[in-house]
Write a structure and sequence with these properties.
Helix content: 25-40%
Bound molecules: phosphoric acid mono(formamide)ester
Radius of gyration: 19 Å
Number of helices: 10
Shape: globular
Number of domains: 2
Number of strands: 9
Distance between the termini: 6 Å
Strand order of the largest sheet: 7-6-5-8-9
Structural class: alpha/beta
CATH superfamily of the largest domain: Aspartate/ornithine carbamoyltransferase
Order of helices and strands: HEHEHEHEHEHEHEHEHEH
């Protein structure tokens, strides 16, 4: 079995990614014709301890497009027996008796791994903690980029609160599997990428640089991966504009650059950017549906 659970990006090899992306293209076609009933006997449980719009709805939509059914709680901390003190491990054992896959978003880094360790059905990490991982977001990010250009030789700037950026962490792990990738981490010093990711990149001979100057980097890169900036976390509160993409910043970027954002956004991408053909973040979110359909079928077909 190639995949039993999906808890972190490091699990994916390049051949496995290519298999997933091939399936994802098929899922785009299946979704366009309304879906399939091939997985009508499958049930997915979504167990979210933190808010979500894209991840939960796209997983649930994926399940419906595959013909299956969904058990869901979006505020698991309040609407599950954890209110009564039940431990995560027991909740997972119980849900494994009712469903064929558990999709979990947990408050703590490592929460999904804890769940996987006791689960008899596949567990998918839908984001865990600050500074944990969000592997399925990274898969859809990489898929979105791969639809536009080769990953090998790619230059990418990650911008924002990188210390807490689980999507960036997961995507950095995936990118480290490809040749000649260049990564710029652009962030206020107090929010820079953590040492464990930088050490991983060094070990895998991936070129990277830590930057504070967005203007210097944006004119160089193929992909701008913007993430959240909360002004209240900045030492210099007024400096968030340095990390914002707006109409004037667009003019400094490559004409064929791609702008991604895992969303939700606040101040860091101005709405005037949305109509620019380089802005891919809404298509990126839609791709999440197809990637998650493909991932679910891979988990089940290879059991
Ligand atoms: N990108 C992402 O994880 O969005 P949600 O928090 O809305 O799921």
């Amino acid at each position: 079995m190639k995949l039993q659970h999906v808890v972190e990006s490091q699990q994916f090899t390049v051949p496995l990614l290519m298999e997933l992306f091939g399936r994802t293209r098929q899922m785009e076609k299946i979704a366009a014709r309304g879906g399939t009933n091939d997985y009508h006997n499958r049930i997915m449980a979504t167990l979210f301890y933190q808010p979500s719009t894209r991840t939960r709805f796209s997983f649930e939509a994926a399940m419906y497009r595959l013909g299956g059914r969904v058990l869901s709680t979006e505020q698991a901390g309040f609407f599950s027996s954890e209110v009564e003190g039940e431990q995560l491990e027991d909740t997972i054992r119980i849900l494994g008796g009712y469903s064929d896959v558990i999709v979990i978003r947990h408050t703590q880094a490592g929460g999904a791994k804890r769940a996987a360790q006791v689960s008899k059905v596949p567990v998918i990490n839908a984001g865990d903690g600050n500074g944990g991982q969000h592997p399925t977001q990274a898969l859809l990010d990489l898929y979105t980029i791969s639809r536009e250009r080769p990953i090998e030789g790619l230059s990418i700037a990650f911008i924002g609160e990188l210390d807490r950026g689980r999507t960036v962490r997961s995507l950095a792990y995936l990118l480290s599997k490809f040749e000649r990738v260049k990564i710029y981490f652009v962030s206020p010093p107090e929010m820079q990428m953590k040492a464990d990711i930088l050490e991983h990149l060094e070990e895998h001979d991936v070129w990277f640089a830590l930057e504070q100057d967005t203007a210097k980097v944006l004119r160089e890169v193929d992909v701008v991966y913007q993430t959240r900036i909360r002004p209240e976390r900045l030492t210099d509160r007024g400096s968030h504009g340095r990390y914002t993409i707006n109409a004037s910043v667009l003019q400094t970027m490559k004409r064929d650059a791609l702008i991604l954002h895992p969303l939700p956004r606040t101040v860091e991408i101005d709405k005037s950017v949305d109509e620019d053909p380089r802005a891919l973040y809404f298509r990126q979110a839609t791709n999440g549906l197809y990637v998650r359909m493909a991932l679910l079928t891979m988990l089940w077909d290879e059991q």
